[in-house]
Write a structure and sequence with these properties.
The protein is an alpha+beta fold. Helices cover about 20% and strands about 40% of the residues. It has two domains: about 90 residues, 3-Layer(aba) Sandwich (Rossmann fold); about 140 residues, Sandwich (Tumour Suppressor Smad4), CATH 2.60.200. The strands form three sheets. The chain has a six-stranded antiparallel sheet with strand order 6-5-16-13-8-9, with no helix packed on it. Strand 5 and strand 6 form a beta hairpin. The chain is elongated, with a radius of gyration of 20 Å. It starts with 5 loop residues before the first strand and ends with a helix.
Length: about 270
C-alpha cells in the first residue's frame, strides 16, 4: 500500500468554506498527499478553513496538538488564517518545496479551583472572567501572591501577546509583540466612583510570574469564563491561576512572519 503523508483539513459549515476545502483537498491529493476524512493524529499538517473563530476552535477541539497548523481565511478579519482562497495553489507548491517556517506560540494556562476539585484550561488568545447575566463582578487580583487591587466592573481579560490585539485591544489594552511571551491583565468597564477605585489600564506581567483572581460572591453565584470567545459557566470557584504555559502550538507560515505587517493590514 502506498504510504502518503496525511494532512487534516478542518472547516466550518459555511458553504464557501466547504467549496474551498474541496478545492484544497483536490490540490493536495494531486501533489501526493492524503487528506483524511476524519481528524488524524498522525497527520503532518492541519489546515483550518474558515475565520479566526474556526481557527481557534480547530485547536481547542483537538486539544492544541503539536501538528503544525495554517489557516485559509473564508471569514472577515482573518488575523490567524494567513492564506486567502486564491493562494491555495501557490501554498501547496511552497509547502511541497519546504518554503515555510514554523513559529511556536505559547498558550495561556488557567487552573480553576473549586472547594474539592480543579480543572485546567488553555487559550491561544485570552480568557475573560465575567459576572453571570451581565452582573457587576468583584475580583481580587494577586500578582505572584501579592494583592494588587479589587477590580469591580464587568470583569477582567487575561491575554497572551497574540491575543493582545483581540478582545484585550477592544477594551483599551495594549498590543504586545509576541516574542515578549508575557501576560496582560486588563479590566473590562471598571467602576470608578467614591465607592470603587479600579485600574483603568492593562498590566503586563513577565512569564515567570502568575496571576491569581479570586471572585467575591456577595452579589453573584456563578462566574463566566470566556475562553478564546467561547463561554463556560462555573459555579462557586474559589480562585483561578493564570500563567504562561509550557504547552504551545506550531504555527506554519510562508516565508517569515511579519507581525507589524499583520497588525497594519488588519487593524490600522
Amino acid at each position: 500500500m502506498e504510504n502518503r503523508e496525511i494532512i487534516n483539513i478542518i472547516k466550518n459549515d459555511n458553504k464557501f468554506s466547504t467549496e474551498i476545502a474541496n478545492k484544497l483537498k483536490a490540490e493536495l491529493e494531486n501533489n501526493g498527499y492524503k487528506v483524511s476524512d476524519e481528524y488524524n493524529k498522525d497527520a503532518v499538517l492541519n489546515i483550518s478553513v474558515g475565520g479566526d473563530g474556526s481557527f481557534l476552535r480547530s485547536l481547542r477541539i483537538n486539544d492544541f496538538p503539536d501538528i503544525p497548523i495554517i489557516g485559509v481565511n473564508t471569514g472577515s478579519l482573518g488575523f490567524y488564517p494567513e492564506l486567502s482562497p486564491k493562494d491555495i495553489n501557490s501554498f501547496v507548491k511552497d509547502y511541497c518545496s519546504g518554503n515555510y517556517t514554523i513559529n511556536k506560540l505559547y498558550l495561556l494556562q488557567c487552573e480553576i479551583f473549586r472547594q474539592n476539585t480543579s480543572e485546567t484550561i488553555f487559550a491561544l488568545n485570552d480568557i475573560a472572567m465575567k459576572g453571570d447575566k451581565t452582573k457587576t463582578i468583584h475580583l481580587d487580583i494577586f500578582i505572584d501572591y501579592n494583592h494588587l487591587q479589587t477590580i469591580s466592573g464587568d470583569g477582567v481579560i487575561i491575554s497572551t501577546p497574540m491575543g493582545s490585539s483581540a478582545y484585550n485591544y477592544s477594551v483599551g489594552g495594549s498590543i504586545v509583540y509576541p516574542s515578549l511571551n508575557t501576560l496582560q491583565l486588563t479590566p473590562i468597564a471598571p467602576l470608578n466612583s467614591k465607592a470603587y477605585r479600579c485600574l483603568n489600564s492593562g498590566i503586563v506581567v513577565p512569564p515567570e510570574l502568575h496571576i491569581t483572581v479570586v471572585p467575591e460572591y456577595k452579589y453573584l453565584e456563578d462566574v463566566i469564563f470566556s475562553v478564546d470567545g467561547e463561554e463556560f459557566n462555573y459555579e462557586r470557584i474559589t480562585h483561578a491561576n493564570f500563567f504562561v504555559s509550557k504547552k504551545h502550538v506550531n504555527m506554519l507560515t510562508l516565508g517569515s512572519f511579519n507581525y507589524w505587517k499583520v497588525i497594519k493590514e488588519k487593524f490600522i
